[in-house]
Structures are given as C-alpha cells and as structure tokens.
Amino acid sequence: MKNCSSLKDIALAPSGKLKIDWVKPNMPVLNCIHERFSKEQPFKGLRILLCLHLEAKTAYLALTVKAGGAEVAVVASNPLSTQDDIVAALVDQGVRAHAWYGATEEEYTAHLHEALDFEPDYIIDDGGDLVSTIIRDRRELISKVKGGAEETTTGVKRLRAMDKEGLLPFPMIAVNDARSKFLFDNRYGTGQSVWDGIMRSTNLVVAGKTVCVVGYGWCGRGVALRARGLGAKLIICEVDPVKANEAWMDGFEVRTLRAAAPEADYFITVTGNINVINKNHFPLMKNGAILANAGHFDVEINKQDLAELAVSRRTVRSNIEEFTLENGVKVYLMAEGRLVNLAAGDGHPAEVMDMSFGLQALMVEYLTKNKDLKKHLYKVPDVIDDEVSLMRLTSLGLQIDSLTEEQEKYLADWQE
C-alpha cells in the first residue's frame, strides 16, 4: 500500500500524527461513528477514495472510513491546502495517498489519475473533481464506482448540472445541502477560518476597515458576520435580489462591485462563479487593498487580468503577492487566489467539520445499504441529517424536547 503512494516525505509522519491527535477529542460525532464502524465493519472488502483538502480533520475522516474495514485512498482537492505531514501520517497508517503541497497543474491532474487507478467502489468528492475526471477521461470506471457523496457548494452545482444533462455516471449525495452541514460548516466554519487565514498571513488590523464580501450565500453570511464581530464596516455585493435584500436587512451596505471598489480595504469572494473581480475593478481600488478568495476554485479573482494590469509584482509575505498597477496603486492577492482559509490557514474548526464529516461517513454507509439508487443527485435523508445534529447535542450534554404523538398528528393532518 505505502509503495503505491505519491507524497513529499514519509519522515514527516510524526508531525502529522500530532495534528490528527489534536483534532480527535474535538470531533465527538466522528469518534462515535469511528467506534461503531470499528465494531460493525460496514465497508469490509470495499475500496473508498476521498478527494478532499488534506489536513487533520479530513485525515481523521479517512481513518474513520478505514476503521470500517475499507481500503482507503486520498487525493488532494487543492494543491495549496495539502499539508505534507498529514499525507505522510496517513500513508504511515496504511492509507494510499497522492498529494503534496504546491503541486503544479500537471502534477495535480496526475495525482487524480493515480488515485483513480485505485478503482474505488465509492468516492467522497470535493468540488466534483473526481466525478468530472471520470466522465471526461476515465469512463472505464463508471461501471466500477457505485456512488459517492459531495462536500461543497461548488461541487453540488457541478453535479446538479450533470444530473440535468443526464450525465451523472452513478448516484451522488449532496452532503453540502444538508442542514447539519451548510448551517454550520459553511456559515460558522467559513466565517472563522477565512479570517484566521487572512489575519495570520497579513498581521493587519480588521477593526475600523471596510470589508467587501462578494456573495451572500451561507459562506458569505459567515464571513460578513465574523468581519462585523472584528469591528469592520461591511459592503455586500450580490446578483441575487433576495440575498441582497437579506444583506440589507442584516444591517449591511449593499452596492455594486464597481461602487464598492474604491472604498474597500478587503475584498473576499464567496460566489462559486468565474471572473467576479476583474479588469473593470482593479484600477478603481485604493492603495493597499487586499484580495482574498473563499470559493472552491481560483477563478473568482481574475488573476490574468491582474497580471496584465500590473507593471510589477513581487511576493511580500508568505501567501501574499503585491501587484503594482500603472496608476501606482498596490493591491495584494492572497494565496494565489485559492481558498484562503485552507491555503493560508488550517481550514474550518474541528467542531464544525465534525458534523460535515460525520455526514460524509454515514452517507457512504447509506450508499452501501441502498444499492438500487438510480444515477441521480440525492439529498441527505432527513433522519440522518437529524441524527448527526442530535449526536452533536449529546456530546455537548444538551437535551431537547420531542414532539408528542398528538403534536405530530396535528402537524401532519390538514383537517386538525
């Protein structure tokens, strides 16, 4: 197994193990699932491939799946979020891995194909990279893979488009759309980890400055909420009139991006779309503006436009590149426009990823028990969604009320 992996340095394993040991006590839902999987072995004889950001929390998910009896392989979903010591720790514990920090585009693609050579029975995907690669280049695997689960908003969008066109090669479950995922991971997780990545990299104050959050979905809400808590003034840019109204009623300024460009000190894109900040906006920005992306792909801030407009560029700090424009204004791009919370930080806190990864583990188990599902995109069953949140409450020592039989009848019967 170890010889089949592609990694930077196996000698880094002890450091990675310490990181994994740190998150375990803070992931009680996954601990509970890990214990049950170890006893029941629901994945015995199966191969499961995970394409995720390779850091401590995802490593523990991989080890939990392995505890269920599976042969497990992992591959990175982003070359700048990979932590080489985590990859080494996984390989040292019998997980096949294909990733290293800073992989080139060619290396990243090669890693995806090496991972797919594993011929998995089930997949856990992030951003739809595995599914897209199978459809485009590895169609021989369509009959082998029995199903999978998707982690992100961007991935679900891609899968929904595939499903609409009838191209989805096997059943996939939209874990991102579960309440126990997006209400916590997307909102509180993204909000905290984005600012963690920005602040540790810049070492600059946030209070009193103006932050422009582009996109007011659940991730954007979280980023804005944390910025307000840090003392910033907020401008929200949106294309969805309902979300724009929501941002306004949450107490934020709502403007077009061109109107916001001259005022903001920080720009954070959270849209999942392409070419959001581009050549129409960069020349309008104030000197010292900081650009960061919290969407899945590095396409929201147009890096080509920025490079073409710049008369010079240099790296001024780790994960910060300075671009000097023709008008003398200097703007700063963080983490090459990739996910700032993972490329410049450690990603979401363990407690919120505990719920997301608990869902991932349970949904792969669900797929093994429901082999008659058709080639469509499915939602997480409400009973499993509720189960994960109840497990989290139990771990906190919290109890909630239950509906009585009379109340359930009243809610279900229109004649009552």
Query: Major sheet: order of its strands?
Result: 9-8-7-10-11-14-13-12
Give the CATH architecture of the largest domain: 3-Layer(aba) Sandwich
Query: CATH top level of the largest domain?
Result: Alpha Beta
CATH names the topology of the largest domain as Rossmann fold
Question: How many angstroms separate the termini?
Answer: 61 Å
Specify Rg, calculated over alpha carbons.
Answer: 22 Å
Let me know the largest β-sheet: 8 strands, mixed
Poorly predicted tracts of residues: none
Our estimate of the beta-strand percent is: 15-25%
Specify the CATH homologous superfamily of the largest domain: Adenosylhomocysteinase-like
Number of strands: 15
Q: Give me the number of helical elements.
A: 16
Oligomer: single chain
Shape: globular
Chain-averaged pLDDT: 96
Structural class based on helices, strands and sheet pairing: alpha/beta
Share of helix among residues?
A: 40-55%
The total tally of domains equals 2
SSE arrangement:
Elements: H1 13-23, H2 28-40, E1 47-52, H3 56-67, E2 71-76, H4 84-92, E3 96-98, H5 105-116, E4 122-125, H6 129-137, E5 147-150, H7 153-164, E6 172-174, H8 179-202, E7 210-214, H9 218-229, E8 233-237, H10 241-249, E9 253-254, H11 257-260, E10 266-269, E11 290-293, H12 303-309, E12 310-317, E13 320-325, E14 330-334, H13 340-343, H14 350-369, E15 377-379, H15 382-395, H16 405-412
